[in-house]
Amino acid sequence: MNSFSTDMQTDSPLIVIAIGGNSLIKDREHMDVLDQYRAAGETSHHIVPIVKKGYRVLVTHGNGPQVGFVLLRSELARDVIHQVPLANCVADTQGSIGLQIAQTLQNEFLRQGMQQEVVALVTQVVVEEQDPSFGEPSKPIGPFMSEEEARQHEFNDGWVIGEDAGRGWRRLVASPTPLEVIEIAAIRGLLQSGALVIAAGGGGVPVVYKPDGTLRPRPAVIDKDAASCLLACELDAEVFIISTDVDKVALNYGTPEQVNIDRMNVAECRRYLDEGHFAPGSMRPKIESALKFLESGGKEVIITQPHKLHAELHAIDGTHIVP
Ligand code: ADP
Ligand code: MG
């Protein structure tokens, strides 16, 4: 086989690429599994050149829309078959989205004549049993609804609901702070062996430690930006790329005064955050994660759309955040 091995150097810089769950859903007419494969394929197509360039890559992904679909499907089928607890729904999406990303990456490496191991790992992430978010759900999941529809679910099904960044109403679930990635040593080992690793999908399956050290799942969806940041810091990543459904971070987002940001430093970014420019549950967790990563020694955060990913990182059209 006339193949080109990337021969990923174990000391080459590590890049964490977080793929947005919302970026895998193009629009309301393109939400099914085949559409998600296509969207994953487009993202994979743009990730391969980054690997080809010689970077080590760890991919993480969100699951906001998809985990809500799985949960809704389970609830709608409750008269026919057992329901699926939320933590298991997260694990289901790690499998399904992990497969879509892994397979489309493998196919893309093959097309580009490269030999590259790709592994999607079921990942558990420890949270605090008493995390305040269990009492105040903030993570939007599933499809968008009208306010009226959302109010009906609130009344009939006990859903916690909220408006999501001017885009419509959604169901909200708890989103505790990620503290520890259970599989971190395995992830490090796989990266060292040269594999491209897909981990912490959907923010990781939320688990708590019991006093005897055993793990138990908890009904929540960790924000993937926070979990990705934790991994990026633990693994000493150099660059943290967040691939989402807007090309740039904006001030006064969604208003006539909207201004897109090409580049900002930590101090500017923190000021904008304090001024309330970034909506909770969507852009805010990305910005908070970006700040945390840069303050822990990361060199750069880039927030952009999947089709703008590029091997020349400085040339990526998006928002670049630097120390
Ligand atoms: P992902 O699945 O990629 O995490 P999110 O929906 O969580 O996507 O976050 C991206 C969304 O953040 C955008 O689609 C946009 O609606 C919203 N958003 C909120 N505030 C801002 C802002 N200041 N600039 C840009 N986008 C913003
Ligand atoms: Mg998000």
Outline the secondary-structure elements:
Layout: E1 4-5, E2 14-19, H1 33-52, E3 56-61, H2 64-76, H3 86-111, E4 114-115, E5 118-120, E6 124-126, E7 139-145, H4 147-157, E8 160-163, E9 169-173, E10 180-181, H5 184-192, E11 196-198, E12 205-209, E13 215-217, H6 224-234, E14 239-243, E15 250-251, E16 259-260, E17 263-265, H7 266-274, H8 283-295, E18 300-304, E19 319-322
Parallel strand pairs: 1-4, 2-3, 2-14, 3-11, 5-11, 6-12, 14-18, 17-19
Antiparallel strand pairs: 6-10, 7-9, 8-9, 12-13, 15-16, 18-19
Helix pairs in contact: 1-3, 2-3, 6-8, 7-8
The chain binds adenosine-5'-diphosphate (ADP) and magnesium ion.
The site of adenosine-5'-diphosphate (ADP) has 19 residues, from loops.
Helix content: 25-40%
- Low-confidence residue ranges: 1-7
Can you write the helix and strand succession as a string? EEHEHHEEEEHEEEHEEEHEEEEHHEE
Give the strand tally.
Answer: 19
CATH topology: Carbamate kinase
Major sheet summary line: 8 strands, mixed
> What's the architecture in CATH terms?
3-Layer(aba) Sandwich
Average of per-residue pLDDT values: 95
> What is the CATH class designation?
Alpha Beta
Report the C-alpha radius of gyration, rounded. 19 Å
Count of structural domains = 1
Query: Please, what is the CATH homologous superfamily?
Result: Acetylglutamate kinase-like
Q: Approximately what portion of the residues adopt beta-strand conformation?
A: 15-25%
Strand neighbour order, sheet with most strands: 5-11-3-2-14-18-19-17
- Structure class: alpha/beta
Separate helix tally: 8
End-to-end CA span:
44 Å
